[in-house]
Amino acid sequence: MTNQGAWTDARLRAAWASGDWSNIFREYRRASGVSQLALGSLVGMPQSHVSLIENGKRQVTSADVISRITEGLDVPNELRGLPGPPDPEGVEWGPNAELNERIARAHSRGRVDVRSADWIARVLAEHRRAEDMIGGKELWPVVRSQLDAVTRLLPLASGPVADKLLILAGEHAHWLSWVAAGEGRRGAAVAWLDLANGWALDAGSADLASWITRVRSYYTLNNGDPIRALRIAEAARRSSGDLSPAASSIALHATSLALAAVGDRDTARRLSQEAYTKALEAPDEGDRPGWLYWLDPVRAKLNLGEAAHAARDWSVAADAFREGLAGLDGYPRDQEFYAARLAEARQRS
């Protein structure tokens, strides 16, 4: 019997996208906890063959064997037929028109139940948490394929399920935007944000619309335009509908960074404190939107330090970075980033 729950694991899904059979077998066994013997029984081959494949001493080339493995491991539909890892120069970084065509046909029928949306949400959560360890580029084809799966479900959904799928589509588009931005594909990053924002509005999600607008402010600030970044961040605070404490916190934080950049440091300090207080109103992950799973009290403290750093309050920044770093586990890239920020703030204070 297969363990489809293993396919929520981002490392396994990235291995599948790579087409590396030795890695696929190893990651499947890690994610599912099965032995080589048990895996062999799933895919119809002896344990000795599984061992040879895992050790790179036997190649998988037969279409029949590939089909047997795909069926035996119960590979999700959205991963079947994925190409190998793309050449970064050949990646289709931007969205295509077909995605919006599918979205336009949403809310028509009700043949998809909430369990499908819950499965997709679980998978996306795993992608988010694994990004720091795996890297976004490796997961790009997986998440892009997952977004295709979401948009294909939408014409079959209605009511609250359709709204949930629209929010998931927006979350996927945001993730793709973030990765594209990290690869220097600014035009594609903004195009994905445009899609995500429209889908958030269609779903009536003020929190997601605000978050996506905040990301646009972040891109704009990093691109050297603080006046426009401030205008966009203020729009994130004014998103139609009531914002949850976490969404409100991150919009306030974005505004404080932009204010500091334009020289209004007093207002920046005030909004930064408001952002910190708001974040502490939702200390538990279940009280925050899925895409803000990371905004716990530790991250709130680091955001406070980041705002103080932008306002050149070096001692305040150093204290906040020191406290935040003490509780930041499992995010090596972020630990490196904030450690450098701490060293800079200490030097300047």
Helical fraction equals 55-70%
CATH arch. level architecture of the largest domain: Alpha Horseshoe
Query: How many individual β-strands?
Result: 0
Rg = 22 Å
Features:
globular; 3 domains; mainly alpha; 434 Repressor (Amino-terminal Domain); 17 helices; Serine Threonine Protein Phosphatase 5, Tetratricopeptide repeat; 349 residues
Task: Draw up the topology in text.
Elements (H helix, E strand, L loop, with lengths): L9 H9 L2 H12 L3 H8 L3 H8 L8 H10 L24 H8 L9 H21 L1 H18 L5 H24 L3 H17 L3 H17 L3 H12 L7 H18 L2 H16 L16 H14 L3 H13 L5 H17 L1
Helix pairs in contact: 1-2, 1-8, 2-4, 3-4, 7-8, 7-9, 8-9, 9-10, 10-11, 11-12, 11-13, 12-13, 13-14, 13-15, 14-15, 15-16, 16-17
Report on this structure.
The chain is mainly α. The protein has three domains: 4-79, 434 Repressor (Amino-terminal Domain) (Orthogonal Bundle), CATH 1.10.260; 92-201, no CATH class; 205-349, Tetratricopeptide repeat domain (Serine Threonine Protein Phosphatase 5, Tetratricopeptide repeat). It has helices spanning 10-18, 21-32, 36-43, 47-54, 63-72, 97-104, 114-134, 136-153, 159-182, 186-202, 206-222, 226-237, 245-262, 265-280, 297-310, 314-326, 332-348. Helix 1 packs antiparallel against helix 2 (21-32) and helix 9 runs antiparallel to helix 10 (186-202). The longest helix has 24 residues, at 159-182. The chain is globular, with a radius of gyration of 22 Å. The model is unreliable at 83-90 and 105-110 (pLDDT under 50).
